User: Which sequence fits this backbone?
């Protein structure tokens, strides 16, 4: 039972770290795209 709890805790920690890393990447990419669109250097996506 203890081993199961440790496994679940490890999986939860890894998931949080992965989601956190991806979230930071997504936000920084979004900021870059927004600033490029704002300054007119990036083509707007086709609507």
Assistant:
């Amino acid at each position: 039972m203890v081993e199961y709890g440790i496994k679940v805790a490890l999986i939860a920690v890894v998931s949080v770290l992965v989601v956190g890393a991806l979230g930071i990447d997504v936000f920084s990419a979004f900021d870059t795209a927004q600033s490029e669109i704002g300054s007119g250097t990036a083509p707007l996506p086709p609507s």
